[in-house]
Design goal:
The chain contains 8 helices and no strands. By secondary structure, it is mostly helical. It starts with 8 loop residues before the first helix and ends with a helix.
C-alpha cells in the first residue's frame, strides 16, 4: 500500500494559517505525530473550512489535480447561478475552459493568467450586484446553510482527490 503525502508542522506554518492557528496550536493539533496526511486533517476537531484549507495545498494534492478541482468548484458554483436564474458572465465559463486546456498543455501560463484575471473581474462585478440586490434576513440564513453544505461537498471532493493522487 502506498502512503499518502504528508506535511510537517513547519510546512503548515509556511502556508501562513490564520491567527488562531499559532505554532503552539498547530503543534497541539499534531500531538505526537511528526507528519500529517489529508486523512489526519480530516479527523481534526476544527471547522470544516479549516480542514479544507489544510488539504488544498500542493504538498498534499499535486498542482494539476488542484487546478482540475478548482475547475470543478467553479463550474458547480456557476451552475448554482444558472439554477437561480442568473447567467454567469462568459468570462467565468471561459476561465474554466482555459484552465482545463492549460492542464492539457494547449495554452500558455500567460493565457491562463489572463483568463483568470478576466473571470475575477466578472466575479467582483457580480458580487457587487448581488449585494445591492440582497435584502431579507431569511435569504442570508438560506445562503449560510447553502454555504455550509457546499464547503462539506468541497471538502469531500478534495479528500477524494488527495487520496487518489498517491
Amino acid at each position: 500500500m502506498t502512503k499518502l503525502p504528508s506535511v510537517t508542522v513547519a510546512q503548515v506554518l509556511a502556508w501562513r494559517p490564520c491567527p488562531p492557528y499559532t505554532r503552539e496550536r498547530i503543534r497541539e493539533l499534531f500531538g505526537r505525530k511528526r507528519r500529517f496526511t489529508c486523512d489526519d486533517f480530516a479527523r481534526l476537531e476544527i471547522p470544516i473550512q479549516d480542514k479544507l484549507w489544510c488539504i488544498l495545498h500542493r504538498e498534499l494534492i499535486p498542482d494539476k489535480e488542484l487546478t482540475l478541482l478548482a475547475c470543478r468548484y467553479a463550474k458547480r458554483t456557476l451552475g448554482y447561478e444558472c439554477k437561480a436564474g442568473r447567467e454567469p458572465d462568459e468570462r467565468s465559463w471561459n476561465a474554466i475552459r482555459v484552465a482545463r486546456r492549460f492542464i492539457a498543455g494547449e495554452v500558455s501560463q500567460a493565457e491562463l493568467a489572463s483568463a483568470w484575471a478576466a473571470a475575477w473581474a466578472a466575479a467582483r462585478g457580480a458580487a457587487w450586484s448581488a449585494r445591492a440586490a440582497k435584502g431579507a434576513a431569511s435569504e442570508a440564513a438560506a445562503g449560510a446553510s447553502a454555504y455550509a453544505a457546499e464547503i462539506r461537498w468541497q471538502f469531500r471532493a478534495a479528500l477524494k482527490v488527495a487520496r487518489k493522487t498517491i
